[in-house]
């Protein structure tokens, strides 16, 4: 995807909301000049400043710019960024199949082959970004999208960080958080391999392995790491899941001398053609129903808001500079 010539939201016809978050929403948009379709991430400066998220969004832009140069088949591409006095705008490749989360919830759980197909794509994503010393830190079904061919695209790099060795920030989704993050002794690329283990489990069971309404109880479960598997859980998937969900980093797959190769050569992935997968030549188990390339029906419907009614202005200097 080539960089896009644009400098204002007026360069787009802005359509329906595709998703919402703490600091704004993502909307479907069409570039008026080229007629290309995009996801427009609109983030309220006022809310980000109040929540000390300015550096996070600057980091997200930097990381997406780095990754977009390579155009990895399973990572969304960033086409442009700009701002006005109220919003930061990120113009991102739009993925019309909708959220992976919705497909998993509708199915309750996936069969072994479907789970393996999507887990393998996450392996390739992490292998790629770790090579550039980028850790993602927020894998969960909500941050994965399904494209028109039924392949994954990972999105939302708000927690991603360039980390050659270790970082100490407490972040992530509670059910997916790794023990070393909770212990705040420093964490690195191993957190991503832990989250892969959680995702595999959730795909095959329907729920993550550690679950509690009380965050303290949930974190205790994570630290104790007592895994319980259903009878239908594939034995080779079980073996890999245990090797990913290992609190001991000296034993966790992905963290050892061979890195991602330990995962790629595990018995569960015996029949996976990694080269064909990367080239998107394998049959996808999910095929989104799409009436056209502007059909947004695979996304949840969100109530639209009157942006003018929101308190959007902020006092003081603008910390976003020439974002």
From TrEMBL:
Domain AGC-kinase C-terminal, chain residue ranges per copy: 270-323
Matches recorded under Pfam families: Pkinase (PF00069)
SUPFAM superfamilies documented for this protein: Protein kinase-like (PK-like) (SSF56112)
GO biological process, one term: anatomical structure morphogenesis
Binding site for ATP: 41
Keywords, comma-separated and alphabetical: ATP-binding, Kinase, Nucleotide-binding, Serine/threonine-protein kinase, Transferase
Keyword Acetylation recorded: no
Coiled coil, from the record: none
A molecular function GO annotation: ATP binding
Domain of life where this protein originates: Eukaryota
Gene3D superfamilies, per database record: Phosphorylase Kinase, domain 1, Transferase(Phosphotransferase) domain 1
InterPro entries: AGC-kinase_C, Kinase-like_dom_sf, Prot_kinase_dom, Protein_kinase_ATP_BS, Ser/Thr_kinase_AS
Domain Protein kinase: 12-269
PANTHER family xrefs: CAMP-DEPENDENT PROTEIN KINASE CATALYTIC SUBUNIT PRKX, CYCLIC NUCLEOTIDE-DEPENDENT PROTEIN KINASE
Family: Belongs to the protein kinase superfamily.
Record protein name field: Uncharacterized protein
Record lineage: Eukaryota, Sar, Stramenopiles, Ochrophyta, Bacillariophyta
